[in-house]
C-alpha cells in the first residue's frame, strides 16, 4: 500500500473527468452534477458577498453622510431660544457633546415661473455649522461664509434636486413664502438669490434651502430668537441617553430630539434587512452545499468496485471515508474560493457598474425623493468574506460525511461478486 493513499485518491476523484470508468452516461451525469453543485456554490457565495456589501454601504452612508448632515441631537425651546449662547455654554460641558451650533428652521414654499415646491429653510452660522456637520464636504467654506452677508436680496444655497425642479441656476432669484404661524399675521414673502446649489446625494437635495442665521431669523415669527441648538456627539449611540438626560435637566419648556427619532426607523430597517437577506442567501448556499451529498453518493455508486478493491488491499474504514471527505472539501474549497473572488470583485466595482448602466439607460435607479440616497453604495468587509467563505466550506465538508460513511461500509465480497 502507498502511504497517504487517501488524499491522493480523493484529489484524483475530485479533479477527474471520470472517463473510462463505469458507465459513460453515468460518468457524464456525475461530472455534470458535480460541476453544477460547484457553480451553485460559487454563485451563492458571490451573491451573498455582493448583497452584504451593498447593505453595509447603505448602513455606512446612513451613519456617515446622512447623520452627518441632519442633527444628531437637537434642543428646542417653546417660542424659540432667546439667549442661545448661555444655553450652549451650559451644554458644552457634557462629555458626550463635541460641538454645538444654533439654527433657525422653518417650512415654506418656493415659487418660480408658476412652479411651487415645499421647502425647509435652514439658517446656520457657518463657522459653527462646519463643526457639527459634514456640509463642508459638499459646499466650499467661503460660499457658506457669504450666507451671513446681509443684503436686500439675501443669498441662499439650494438643494440640487429642488433647483432642477424650479429650473434654478446660480445667480437667479425666486420667491420664498413663509406661512403665518399665528392667527392675525400674514405670510412673509421674500425674494432670494441663488448663491450656489448643493448635491449631497441624499433626500435633503429635494427640499433644502441653506441661509444665514440672521437672514433666516428675519423670516420667522420670532426674529430675535433661534429655533434650537444642534449638538454633535463623540458617539452616535449615546444620543438616546443624552436626550433623556437633557429632557430631565432642562425642564418642561425645552424639547430634545435625537437622530433615532428622525432616522431611527430607517437605520434599524437597514440592519434588519441585512440580517434577513443574509439568512436567506445563507440558506441558498446551504442548499448548494448539500447538493454535494447527491454528487458524492453517485460517485460512491460509480466507484464501488474500486472501493471494494481498496478494501481487499487493506484500506481502512477511515481511509475510505477520507477519500470522499477530501473530494467534498475540494468542491467546497473551489466553490467558496472562486465565489469569494467573484463576489469581492463585483462588490468593489458595483457603484461604477450601476453608474455606467444608469448612464447607458438614461435612468436613475434610486431617486432621492423616494430613497434616502440617490446612488448605490458598497462597503466590502474582509470579515464578511471570511465568514461566508468558511461557512460555505464547512457546509460542504459536513455534507460529505454521509456519502463517505456509506462508502466506508461497502462490503467488498458483495460488490466483487458481480464484477
TrEMBL record:
This entry carries the following GO cellular component terms, namely: plasma membrane protein complex
Gene Ontology process terms (BP): lipoprotein localization to outer membrane; lipoprotein transport
The main place the protein resides is membrane
Q: Where is the MacB-like periplasmic core domain?
A: 36-229
Membrane protein topology class? Multi-pass membrane protein
* Similarity section: Belongs to the ABC-4 integral membrane protein family. LolC/E subfamily.
Protein name per its UniProtKB record: Lipoprotein-releasing system permease protein
Organism field: Pseudoteredinibacter isoporae
